[in-house]
Please model this.
Amino acid sequence: MRKVGNSRGVLIPAAFLVSCRIEDQVDMQLQDGQIVIKPVSRKLREGWFVQSASEPTPSKVVADEQAWDALPGVVDSEWVW
Model:
């Protein structure tokens, strides 16, 4: 174990990583007082922007408009284009 800031880091031998098929990303969980490290089967941010790339739903458009209207001191006439 090595000190990393206020935390501790564990060096895992390359042979262990290959044997467990661990590359750059892991899923780490605490189970019954034990740390379980597993390989990630998908990219961590995979799919984050899928919905944003599609057309916005009417309810999303209304929610966005309401959020803008709720901002204090922001009036459309203040914007200069």
About this structure: The mean pLDDT is 79. Residues 2-39 form a domain with the Pemi-like Protein 1; Chain: D fold (CATH 2.10.260.10). Strands lie at 2-4, 7-9, 26-31, 34-39. Residues 25 and 70 are 40 Å apart (CA to CA).
